[in-house]
Amino acid sequence: MYLLAAGLQTDSILSKKPREKSLTPPRGQLRFGVFRATRPLAAGALWLVASNAVMNVAAATADWQRLPGATQRIAATWRDQQLETVLARVVEASDMPVWIDRRVNRQQLVTLALAETTVANAVQQIAAAAGYEATPWRGVVVVATPGAADEIETLGLAVREQLVATPAPVRRRWLTPAAATWPQLTEPRALLMQWIEPLGLAANEAARVPHDLLPAASLPALAPIDRATLLLGGFDLTLQFDTGGAPRIAPIARPVRITREYRLRPQTIAAFDAKLAELVAAGLAEVPGGARAEQGRRVSIAASAAGHEQLAAALSGRNAAEPPPAKRPPRRSPGGERRYSLRIEGQPLGPVLDQLAAQLGVQFVWGEGLAAAEYRTRRVSCNVRDVTRAELLAAIVADAELACDIADNTATLRPVQR
Predict the structure, then answer these.
(1) Closest CA to 248 of 211, 204, 194
(2) What is the pLDDT along the chain (418 residues), one digit of tens a residue?
(3) Which of 93, 229, 323, 384 has its CA 20 to 30 A from that of 265?
């Protein structure tokens, strides 16, 4: 799993460890790394992975579709869970790299119910429920305040433009991708020195980054310039280069804009002009010198990365917000039955059954003579992968010395025959 965060407090640190790709309830309820169950399950969520399920797949952008596990399907419910915990549970099933910007409140509580959906859609809904945005950027999902991801994208393009004037060997070193891993309680300034001191970053420049501590985590293969942009953005800082390629760290000059030149065509000039006026009115773009868009001439526009994307879409005659055609839904397994994966440890049976009933649409019936109140408090554990619904329920109730008979959507519980 990748869960990446800039500027985290040390009271809640996630570690990057290999684990099975199954979804588990939030930390503090079920086992996760070194953490063990301490709170009742009913306060959080029970997670299932349903594979080979036939659902209507929401259209996703090409950037989302390229992310690991983006189209994997999940269903979950959370009540008053911390944002970082909810995100961790989603991305651990897919190995989707997620970077939590330093300006995000990771402890913000999230209450959300998701019907079966894709991981990509789930991450976007979770971020939105907390008042943030989730945006794919160079193979990493950036969770940030509204507009921050666009600013990071614009900063990334701006610093790359500065590299154009540097010698080719310097450009290659800054743009060569490599994965990165760092240990618990790493200082951001020390991490920057590790990444880009060999590229010319001076110690006094790194000292401009305020003291902070990071959790142990990893980044997928990114160019050094992109890693630095992500990390520095959370401190409202960015890179600048001289013509020789020597880097320095400076405050972000807002609004962040890059300039692009457009050649206007008769059939799209009206749409382009309307979109430009909209962006200028919203403070997202400006026309240097106040030049008007005129047919057959070139015009330079200063805007954010998202603003330029909208202008390019208007110039091409398409809608920038229009998603690509929805992918065909995945097929069921040869047997036609959904399969599930679940891991729980030492949880009261009652809350587990309650959440399963909501997620699976199953009604649990206690057999004649069973004292439901007694059995609901019994602790159960299971760890199953790619099992049928009947096998899943049988595994869950086994520790309570119960069996489960399923007919349609009714599951009848009975004592195990001895």
Answers:
(1) 204
(2) 345 545 443 332 223 333 333 333 333 332 222 222 233 343 445 555 554 332 222 333 678 888 888 888 888 888 899 998 899 888 877 778 899 998 999 899 999 888 888 899 899 999 999 999 999 998 899 999 988 888 999 999 999 888 888 888 888 899 999 999 999 899 999 999 999 999 999 999 999 999 998 877 888 889 999 999 999 999 999 999 887 888 999 999 999 999 988 887 777 788 888 888 888 888 888 887 665 555 456 788 999 988 888 888 888 765 544 444 343 333 344 445 677 778 777 788 888 888 788 777 788 888 877 888 888 888 888 877 778 888 889 888 888 888 888 887 888 888 886 5
(3) 323
Q: Which residues pair with 83 in a beta bridge?
A: none
Which alpha helices (H) appear in 296-409, and where do they start and end? 305-316, 349-360, 372-376, 389-397
Question: Average pLDDT over the chain, rounded to whole?
Answer: 77
DSSP structure string for 254-300: SSP-EEEEEE--TTTHHHHHHHHHHHHHTTSEE-GGGPPP-TTSEEE
Instruction: In whole angstroms, give the CA distance from residue 251 to residue 264.
Output: 35
- Element spanning 230, H or E: helix 224-233
Asked if residues 236 and 252 have their Cβ atoms less than 8 Å apart, the reply is: yes
pTM for the predicted model, two decimal places: 0.63
Beta strand 363-366 with 410-415: parallel, antiparallel or unpaired? parallel
Q: Compute the Cα dihedral for 332, 338, 339, 341 and give only its sign.
A: positive
Closest to 46 in 3D by CA, of 338, 337, 348, 377: 348
DSSP 331: P
Query: Is residue 148 within 8 Å of 101, Cβ to Cβ?
Result: yes
pLDDT for 58: 32
Domains of the chain: 4-146 (3.55.50.60), 164-251 (3.55.50), 258-316 (no CATH), 339-415 (3.55.50.30)
Which 8-state DSSP code applies to residue 367?
P
What secondary structure letter does DSSP report for 318?
A: S
- DSSP secondary structure of 96-114: --EEE-TTS-TT-EEEEEE
CA-CA distance, 396 to 25, in Å (whole number)? 14
Adjacent-strand bridge partners of 298: 263
Q: Which residues pair with 5 in a beta bridge?
A: 100
